[in-house]
Amino acid sequence: MTALRWGVASDHAGFALKEKVRGWLRARGIEAQDLGAHSDARTDYPDWGHALGAAIAEGRLDRGVIVCGTGIGVSIAANRHAGVRAALCHDAFTAAMARAHNDANVLALGARVLGDGVAESVVDAFLSAAFEGGRHADRVVKLG
Ligand code: RB5
Q: How many CB atoms are located within 10 Å of the residue 84 CB?
């Protein structure tokens, strides 16, 4: 099986956490493509949610982590792209269920919501859980 292609993106509010997420992914053997932002200079969160969402919709990436202050704005933007199932998660249980039941392909994080320890546990849960398929596959198809 070919390795999944991961990407990360954030606005200015999510920049510092996005950099940490890249490191956490790297420590787990995943070299994520960094779509930006590349500094904490003020920028618009839709640009980064759209950047990651488009990369998945166009088949350039398979999975991603997006970050803004709350995680809300980037998740709304990413979810406007075909085939993107971005899940905004503030805890490890939700992140695991996002993979297991929703086959989420994007994890959205709120940098102003989560401490680093919780954020890493959320990333870990998203990486570790597998889609259960079965009845959940039928429901994911209905998401469109
Ligand atoms: C930026 O101030 C903030 O609005 C943004 O990071 C995000 O939280 C939007 O949903």
A: 21
